[in-house]
Amino acid sequence: MGKILIIDDEQAIRKALKEILEYESFEVTEAEDGPTALKLVDKDTFDLIFCDVKMPRMDGVEVLSKLKEKGIETPVVIITGHGNIETAVETLKKGAYDFIQKPLDLNRILVTVRNACNQVSLQKETKSLRKKIAKAPAFQIVGKSKAIEEIKNLIDTVAPTEARVLITGGNGSGKELVARQLHDKSERASGPFIEVNCAAIPSELIESELFGHEKGAFTSAIKTRFGKFELAEGGTLFLDEIGDMSPAAQAKVLRALQESKITRVGGDKDFKVNVRVFAATNKDLRKEIEAGNFREDLFHRLSVIVIRVPSLSERKDDIPILADHFLNLIAEDYGQPVKEITPGALKALQDLKWTGNVREFRNVMERLVILSGKTIDEKLVKAYAVPNFS
Length: 390
Known about the structure:
Layout: E1 3-7, H1 11-23, E2 27-31, H2 34-43, E3 48-52, H3 60-69, E4 76-80, H4 85-93, E5 98-101, H5 106-135, H6 146-158, E6 165-168, H7 175-184, E7 193-197, H8 203-211, H9 228-231, E8 236-240, H10 247-259, E9 261-263, E10 270-272, E11 276-281, H11 285-290, H12 296-302, E12 305-308, H13 319-334, E13 340-341, H14 343-350, H15 357-371, E14 375-376, H16 378-384
Parallel strand pairs: 1-2, 1-3, 3-4, 4-5, 6-11, 6-12, 7-8, 8-11, 13-14
Antiparallel strand pairs: 9-10
């Protein structure tokens, strides 16, 4: 369950607390005074500390101060007699987690322990997440192939401008990463990045999603709602899978790009918008134009710059780099050592057809990590890289 330190000069108190806590499966260490306790915390880590206020050599207030000086963040619960309430309140001001009065109440102890341990668990999780965020570059484009280097160079050139960009490529190839990199390297990086998946929103709702609506515009419009264009003010709006957008929404997007104005659904007032638009699609928009599914004038508005993201099959030289990248990420997520991968396994991965591109590759690497021992070899790749649905 966890490790708890009890600091109290009364053996009876230490014994009573220890019995309660060990019954709840905690590992308990005892200290009869402050100096002994401080030596223990230098050698070991505890999840919770119980500390008496009135003790010889060093009282509870001084112990608490010493712990804070050492940078110990372990919650400290002060044990106090009836005559020491003011002192206990003083310890709370100095950073104690809580205080419990003598005689000790079983239920009060267990509730305090549970709450304190939950707090410790949350703190550990928060620290872990912060470390992950600090370590990993946000929205990194991984690879050194010629195609990827050309995309990186194009991003560096285009990002500082206000040009609209159309990003094309297959599902899972990394179109969103390109959009994120363009935003992060632009003058709008401090502004919002708002993404809309046009394929995931029903056609009857896409206009409200993009442009917002006025109260009473339709049955469920019980209040005015801002759309994505307004939410992206001063930043970037990323229209993913724009080839699936309805004709009516296409017409309104075209007007927004031409005039930098939008009108909420059910409203008659124009709102100025200052938004840079990136769009992405896995469709051939020229064929969609010929079929009457996409407006040619909108296509030309969106495609000032076109960035085509290659499929993974076109950049197989990047597979060893991607494998190393994902092995590190997955090991971090699972809290385990990084698995080794043999040259034969990498060659087997390069020989596969990656219809789902990098997204599929990441899933395969996770599957191989789960099913492997310390090493991912060629035999494992051939057995499990392609799922057997039979």
